[in-house]
């Protein structure tokens, strides 16, 4: 009997020792690795391994321990057509767990190994091997989802289109997305993202469409953004605060919007090199100085909006070079001088707003109602014999001291440049009350009415990424007239 008891004790001790050694071995084992198939896109070839476990401190991804165990336990019971779909499953499941609110149940069917059937997920043949089906696009536009982007999204290495506009995603854009070398269209507009400009977008060699509108991005704009071969750059309605980089002249973009940020300084003279430019919007910033003469080289521009800034001086004569312009908005600045006939007779001009400035003269063709149906607005200037103008006492300090743009640094003056926005001279006369214009909120990209997103009508398995969507034609918000109209200026000779 005693021998049996001793044998049992020895067996128990042996089992405990084996269990402890297994636990130690498991704790220190290296993470399992999934081989990442080489992908060729253009001239770039990726050939590397991507582990399931990622470490944030090294700009990679680390699943929480419980989440990792759960993922490993569930994957062996599922069958995948190839390893890339398996990695996409891991990424999408991590994303689903990072969603706090999904009112339309958009991700409710994100269950099982058939990731190509998930709502908002689109598959196509791989670009490097058309025998492989891969996740090529994600479209969750207008789904009203709240959550954040987990770093595991970097596992979907064949992703070319990423559209999540008009949701409630927050946080930052993960650096792990730098692995998405095929990214072609990236639209995260109308969300709640924060932090610096997402420089991960600068690492995507194939990117054509970048839309960061209506978020809370802040800080400076990297000059490298204009070195990329982008067709559309939407930056408006964020918190960017810097000068506009001089590299803008290198950009091949057709549409660029800086509107409603805190950009300062001049419009770079290199802007004249943007031969592909169709629309550019500067409205609602703190830009100053005279307009550079190089603006006149933008003969393909249809929309030029520099309203609601601090521009000064007279309009450059080269402005007549905007042969294609349809909408020209220079309102709400500190511009002076005479609005000449050739500006108002541009061949394709439909709307010209130069209200809320200090112009003291305009050609007959610029007067509203005398231009064959074109929409002109000359209100709140210093124009004699015109209604709704500034009081003479408000006009005098500015009109009597016009800025010499030939010496202004923003227009390339050779004498070192004057201050872009000089202070008007002090007068002993009482300062008249200045009516404040009611500035309307931006009208583009309003929060949509909730509706269940449906899959777009594009082919399910395109050979190549879809073409860049044509951005909507910009319509500058029309300023409202102040409730209390200022008194008419007295009939005085121009000082």
UniProtKB/TrEMBL annotation:
Residues 91-123 form the Leucine-rich repeat-containing N-terminal plant-type domain. One of its GO terms (biological process) is cell wall organization. Residues 407-495 are annotated as: Disordered. InterPro entries: Leu-rich_rpt, LRR_dom_sf, LRR_extensin-like_regulator, LRR_N_plant-typ. It is found in: Secreted, Cell wall. It holds the Pfam family LRR_1. Residues 472-495 have a biased composition (Basic and acidic residues). Keywords: Cell wall, Cell wall biogenesis/degradation, Glycoprotein, Hydroxylation, Leucine-rich repeat, Repeat, Secreted, Signal. Its main location: secreted. Residues 462-471 have a biased composition (Pro residues). It comes from Arabidopsis lyrata subsp. lyrata. This is Cell wall hydroxyproline-rich glycoprotein.
